[in-house]
Design a protein that fits this description.
Strand content: 35-45%
Radius of gyration: 46 Å
Strand order of the largest sheet: 1-11-18-13-16
Length: about 600
Amino acid sequence: MKRIHYILCFLLFGVTIPLFAQDISLFQQFNGRYDYTAIGNTLNSVENGNGGACDILTSSAADLNLNSNQNVVAAYLYWAGSGSGDLDITLNGIPVTAERTFSDALDADATRVFFAAFADITDILTTQGNTTYTISDFDLTTTIAAFCSTATNFGGWAITVIYEDTSLPLNQLNVYDGLQSVPTFLSITLDNLNVLDNEDAKIGFIAWEGDGALAVNEQLTINGNVISNLPLNPANNAFNGTNSFTGATDLYNMDIDVYNIQDNISIGDTSATITLTSGQDFVMINNIITVLNSQLPDATISIDDSIVNCGDNNIELLYTVSNLNSTDILPANTPIAFYLDGILIGQSQTTNDIAIDASESNLVIVIVPENVDPSLTIIAIVDDDGTMNGTITEANEDNNITFENIELLIIPDITILTNLIGCNEGFETSTYNLFDALENINYNEEDISFYTSLEDLESESNEILIPSAYNNFLNQETIYVKLTSPPCYEIFQFNLIVENCPPYVPQGFSPNDDSYNDWFNIQGLYNIFTEHTLEIYNRYGDIIYEGDNDKPWFGKINRGLNNHGNIVPVGTYFYILNLSDPNYKPMMGWVYVNY
């Protein structure tokens, strides 16, 4: 790749054909053991300008004779004539309609217009093979009379046949077409050439309306050198109604010619300039074919798929590098570069040598810069060292690039939910049903997962397995919720807060060592209100017991003058419970002890 330009792509929903000439440009390229031949015929019974020239045929024929080792890979039909054209004709009884059209005019006011048409007939030729090909229903009879007085009445057709032959060297065969004309001077530049060896290089033309009898200052050159093909095409009369492949000299007002240009093109050339001068003869060039010995790879790249993860600027690209239209292997380690807005975001390279007509697929991770527009276009270029320069000489230097439109999956901002408050069950822990925090959200339970950190949520690790009965580890503890919402997900957040709830004081107990209700079990007190104090009084108002978080009351006396360690008798006792919590006043009441 010698250069890369940014390419603007346009979607064409309609094509308007221009009134006058269309520049000759590359239509198709073949790289391999290819060559071509051409057949065709005129509809003129004599050269125009002679007697009877206004009599034009509607049908003519030509024979195709390929060798047994020459296999057709493409066949293109061109036909042309005076007037606006007959675009629906017949080939061996098969209807053919123009797929592309060309036009030209001889006069500034366009009173004399001419047309040319194109159709791909590869299927017909591969089916019928060597035979006589007859063009019929090509009817210009209603329009031809207007051109007789100026000797510009003509009609004709030609078929270019590209074939593969394993005995041939590796060639680059370029098919150019359009419609350009003289008089007086015409210059055509043929691009996309790669001349590695000029031996047996050749160039061929399909041209219309040339007159054998007119040769005023007529000359055909390539790269400034006059070319000829004696005896059919002398240097001063190149377009004179001949077919170089068959030796025919009666293709009135059309030419199918081929020239050897071995000495007129140089190794290393990437283009060639064709010039045609004519002082009088009106000649239209419709098709040019070059055949050059060329052993080169042709790297192309396609992005087959992309993997974008939620909230992640790392994009996985699955791509394929191909070497399809080539005449040599594409070497291993051919560099590949990936760009976003002209910024290099990733690089890779081919792993193995890629054979002719083969390909190789691989994966690369590119890193998109932060804070970019989420709707982005990544450009992938094969044979690019990361500076938009290549390292490999290729058959086609203009097809190394591809585009992929990608949408980053942006995670919405975290939504804060109402906190869940739980009663302290001891040591500042509580049991929560985490789904209670989602009461105002529409969801399916299978789409919900809970985590204790944002990092775990993003990596989908350490999910809370039993969210309906979760015990906190901290007070307060933050819970993160992941709600699957294709193509991405939403994140919610809430806190678990532990509060000391009012304790429940039983009305009595029985300290008889039956392992049932043997102590003054005030629920929600111990290991919750850890600084509490408990005082027990008898019915005379004497304190008989003092306790705290480490000393619950089992019905024994630990205060007063007598009976320390003894069980209190059956009866009602008064308690004062000071929770040592600014949110609660001391609790007082009666408890009944029985055995």
